[in-house]
Amino acid sequence: MGKSYKQIDGRLRAFIEAQHIFFTATAPLDGDGTVNLSPKGLNGSFAVLDELTVAYLDFAGSNAETIAHLRENGRITLMWCAFDGPPNIVRVHGRGEPVFRDDPRWDGLMRHFPDIDPTLHGLRAIIVVSAEKIRDTCGYAVPFMTYEEDRPLHASRFARETDETLDAYFQKKEHVATSIDGLPGLPLPLPPLPVPADGG
Q1: Residues 30, 1: Cα–Cα separation, whole Å
Q2: Which of 93, 114, 139, 159 is the most exposed place for a label (fewest CB within 10 A)?
Q3: Do the beta carbons of residue 73 and residue 5 sit within 8 Å?
Q4: pTM (predicted TM-score)
Q5: Residue 198, pLDDT score
Q6: What is the distance between the alpha carbons of residues 109 and 92, in angstroms, rounded to a whole number?
């Protein structure tokens, strides 16, 4: 039986922080628009900010559907599945906002991700989600799967990019500045990656 929670804490928080992958779902307001579902990985790229707020790092890619949908309407669902241990599925339904490189909140948010080197992955935004509904379900049909390690391919692909070449990469992609359905996506030109206030 599914259960609702008032906040993200205790065993619920421990569960979602222990998962190596989660999924995000968004959609435009247009009923004929494209629903987007994305897997998110890389250890250290997700953080619980407080009992009702979570955030994750949005890395370079050839699309920006989540960003476009959040800019239009803010609706987002995050989902975690237990692939080992007791069965469980957790969903956080809420409102999300992309925080971009030139936002004054950037440095403060990045402090929640100490294990990620942002220069290796073409980091383009931090997605901050305010939870409105938190639920779990049984997950009885989710298979057992074993985590081995993060793939090194994303870092090896984007670590060689500078701010300028990364911007050029995004400019060439059809659905980065504009979504599949024509919504505004990642604002370009891409601002420089901020240097942390401590110089690190």
Answers
A1: 33
A2: 114
A3: no
A4: 0.96
A5: 65
A6: 20
